Amino acid sequence: MQIIDGKEISNRVKERVKAEAIALKDMGITPTLAVILVGEDKASQTYVASKEKSTIACEMGSVAHKLPESTTQDELLALIELLNADDSIDGILVQLPLPKHIDSNKILEAIDPSKDVDGFHPINVGKLNSGLDGFVPCTPLGIMELLKEYNIEVSGKNAVVIGRSNIVGKPMAALLLNAGATVTIAHSKTKDLAKVCQNAQIIVVAVGKPNFLTADMVNDGAVVIDVGINRLDNGKLVGDCDYDNVAPKCSMITPVPGGVGPMTIAMLLSNTLKSAKNRKLKG
Ligand code: NAD
Predict the structure, then answer these.
(1) Over the stretch 110-123, which tens digit does the pLDDT of each residue have?
(2) Does Cell cycle appear among the keywords (predicted)?
């Protein structure tokens, strides 16, 4: 059994992004990410701070807009319009979740698809599902990078994605399908999940429940990608997998922490660089 080291691969991605960002700077281009945070959610504040820090560490520009909880939908839309029109901004990210009085779909649809580095705009969702080049959500994109770096063949494999969110499950399934896997998407209404999983050579679990994926569900030699991030009462961070019992059955597995998690920010930086190159290098 081999542990997939997301920390190491994410560092490699960041080094690559940084080298390219420095080369662009020599040409007078600073790839710049604008992050919008609405409200006081502690977890969101931590995510935004870490995105800002990583962006700056990769020699890219970082602009943060921290707005009060009382911000109206129209005020947020007006800010997005300004950022869409600002040529110095390459990527726009709205930290989710937004306060309840704001319609997230309206906000995500307002972002210029060419600056949509989170890949949530319907145009980019459509491109992904059509196999066209666009922006792909960072977590599933990071998982594909891990599979590539560890030479895990996807084509012809049976893959099960557990979870059908727009952020992880659905784009993950599309990427695996585009890469030639036979993909099953399982979710809360799926019957006999164990049987569905036992047929898989690759399992991606993105449910958000500790110990959800148990050893009896996993085929000998399977690759298990654990997307879950769960904080236990004792403060420990765990994934969705019963790791101690599942890992011995796997050929490869991602740990939590240190697996998928670090890849998400790395791919955000990579998408921001891609946007700058698309927008400022291509005629
Ligand atoms: P979500 O709550 O939007 O989706 C959870 C999915 O799990 C749903 O589609 C649901 O159908 C499915 N599900 C729930 N109960 C189930 C059951 N009994 N059987 C089968 N499926 C079931 O969550 P999300 O945003 O996709 O995130 C999932 C997990 O991944 C969370 O723990 C989240 O914190 C984590 N996450 C991690 C990263 C990262 O960077 N590593 C990024 C995004 C999300």
Answers:
(1) 999 999 999 999 99
(2) no
